């Protein structure tokens, strides 16, 4: 009986990649967001659609706050999410696909204020009078994660739900700048020309690869391999490059 139980448990935990996948996401233009006609569009949406088509899979999207998306990956309530940065903490509950694009996180400040914000590294923030905004649940690189453990550094960080709130906080002079994905901020400025009162500070924050994350509670390495093969195909046939150029 013990042997039968163990085999059954393994089958439930590491079932083969299902034909229909529940994909968790948080609206994050230009990577995934709803258009004016309420259609889900974006760079990551197009890439995942191409991967799914190549792997003969269908996708069901489930929009939740980002922290809840990560929670559902842990519990297996969703199969995967897209547009994810790698971290050791996330690797405990998720498999990572091959990288399919890169991201760059920058510090954005009010136009004309770069010279007034004189820090040259993130560690300088704890000794300054500045306060920077971040979006709750997002990853800003290993240096930020390590510094965030320090109370003095954390006192200079203000966490909100999303980019739009950080923009308003900066416009209302409640923070001195905020950390954001460069492509996301550039897209936001294009869509909100009147709010284009920002500039990118030269302080380097974080740059790294981006992955699809699959729930370890749902999938084995076999599932990851199937996704990876599909990613490799769209890289080799030029489809991935076409999608990336379309959203530049």
Automatic annotation (TrEMBL):
Pfam families assigned: SBP_bac_3
Main location: other
Keywords: Signal
Sequence ranges assigned to domain Solute-binding protein family 3/N-terminal in this UniProt record: 20-248
Domain of life per record: Bacteria
Localisation: Cell envelope
A GO cellular-component term linked to this record: cell envelope
Similarity comment: family membership: Belongs to the bacterial solute-binding protein 3 family.
Protein name, as recorded: Polar amino acid transport system substrate-binding protein
Top-level taxonomy: Bacteria, Pseudomonadati, Pseudomonadota, Gammaproteobacteria, Alteromonadales
